[in-house]
Automatic annotation (TrEMBL):
Subcellular locations according to the entry: Cell membrane
Coiled coil, from the record: none
PROSITE patterns with a match to the protein in the record: HAMP, HIS_KIN
Protein name (database record): histidine kinase
Length: 454
């Protein structure tokens, strides 16, 4: 809602406006409550003092009336309680102070109990002010008498408006001062946030850049550090994406270039070409392209976190079936325990195990060992070979995209360099790990997945 261009809904206000308004409102309420309590306490103190002094005056006057039953003018003992009257049981004024000479009885509700003083505040037209009256009805040998002792509240009434105005002014001044202080404090506190906002707005599609971290070690500086950490991760992600695009371009260019050259050469002298051989060579390049595209599609799905239904899988049975599914260049020894259950996507686990077995077959000299066992809460798969092994410094690099060691390129020139990358991503997608561990001479890959209890 807008009125003359001003946003009235608090949800549309800035943080500074909302904090200032909330703090001002709370302080204003506290000040109003404090002023009300203060005024009530002052008023109670004043009236309490008048009540005590009025009781003393009435008590002394009651003693005098019991002893002498005075008539006419009364001597004032307390200068504040200058309005004195004694009225008999017939409502006639029998004694009075000079201030009430010739006046009728004060218009005060009659006492309810004989011998007990009561106090009232009434309006006196003669002095044009409120008066504080203490009255008491007593029994004497001369009959019932009602005694009145009143104190004009002229000063209190005259200064009441000024006093209330002073308190209201103090509340308004204090509230305005708090609003000014809070607004300034919030503005200074949010200044680094505004700087960070401007710096983030100036970041374009190039390098992510950084934001300025303010000097005080507080929540704002922690926010700036978190923003810089996020920007650093984005920068690393952009670098990986650029590298991935470059690697994909390179990997796709090679088979496409070979396929194009073969076809161009064949078309230069079509009558001299062995077209079945040309078709077989083109088909081989097409198969390599299809493999690269298929692997890239799997990586894209794993990286995007596409939801895939999972089910309870007999891990040992799956390992035995896949390891013995086809004949390989070297024999495969299988040692898979029974009763190991995991929750996974069978097709992805088969792809992972196939990649590990194909990798082991490429490098093995005479044998491959596959084992599946339960290790505490985990299901553990190991794939070992008796090849030359993996140098320790390359055990992480082999999981990078399109990263192939020299021996791997020599043994299989048609590989894509994505098999181990896909295998690790599948393991991570299932909440597990896949590492290249120490082995007895050859390569040793260890997969760990969370096992399910029976």
């Amino acid at each position: 809602m807008r009125v003359l261009g001003v946003r009235l809904s608090p949800s549309c206000w800035s943080v500074r406006a909302r904090v200032t308004a909330a703090a001002t409102l709370m302080v204003g309420l506290v000040l109003v409550a404090g002023v009300v309590i203060f005024y009530t306490a002052v008023q109670h103190t004043v009236y309490s003092g008048l009540h005590q002094r009025g009781d003393l005056v009435v008590h002394d006057l009651a003693s005098l009336v019991r002893d002498t039953d005075p008539r006419g003018l009364l001597r004032v003992q307390d200068p504040d309680f200058s309005l004195l009257q004694v009225v008999d049981q017939h409502g006639r004024v029998v004694a009075y102070s000079d201030a009430l000479r010739g006046r009728r009885p004060l218009k005060v509700p009659p006492p309810g109990v004989v011998g007990r003083a009561e106090d009232h505040i009434v309006r006196s037209e003669r002095i044009n002010a409120d008066v504080y009256v203490v009255e008491e009805r007593i029994r004497t040998s001369f009959g019932y008498r009602t005694i009145y002792a009143a104190a004009p509240l002229t000063e209190l009434t005259r200064n009441k408006g000024a006093f209330i105005g002073l308190l209201v002014g103090a509340v308004l001044t204090g509230t305005a001062l708090v609003a000014w202080i809070v607004a300034g404090a919030v503005r200074r506190a949010l200044r680094p946030v505004r700087v960070m906002s401007d710096e983030l707005a100036n970041i374009t599609g190039g390098e992510p850049g950084r934001v300025t971290v303010p000097d005080p070690a507080d929540e704002v500086s922690e926010l700036a550090q978190s923003v810089n950490l996020t920007l650093h991760r984005l920068e690393a992600l952009l670098d990986r994406q650029r590298g991935f695009v470059g690697d994909v371009s390179h990997e796709l260019r090679s088979p496409l270039t070979g396929l194009r050259m073969q076809l161009e050469l064949a078309l230069q002298h079509p009558e001299d070409e062995d077209w079945p051989a040309v078709a077989r060579a083109a088909l081989a390049d097409a198969d390599r392209l299809q493999g690269i595209v298929s692997d890239l599609l799997i990586l894209a799905k794993l990286g995007a976190g596409v939801h895939v239904e999972r089910e309870r899988v007999d891990f040992g049975a799956l390992v035995r079936a896949e390891a013995a599914r086809r004949d390989r260049r070297v024999p495969v020894e299988i040692d898979a325990a029974e009763g190991i259950a995991v929750r996974a996507t069978p097709e992805q686990l088969v792809r992972l195990l196939t990649n590990l077995l194909d990798n082991a077959e490429r490098h093995a000299r005479s044998r491959i060992w596959v084992s599946a066992a339960r290790d505490g809460p985990d299901a553990v798969l190991e794939v070992r070979d008796d090849g030359s092994g993996i140098p320790p410094e390359d055990r992480e690099r082999i999981f990078w995209r399109f990263q192939r060691l020299a021996e791997g390129r020599r043994r299989d020139k048609g590989g894509t360099g994505l098999g181990l990358t896909i295998s690790r991503d599948i393991a991570r997608a299932h909440g597990g790990t896949l590492v290249a561990a120490d082995g007895d001479g050859g390569a040793r890959f260890v997969l760990r997945l969370a096992a399910e209890d029976d």
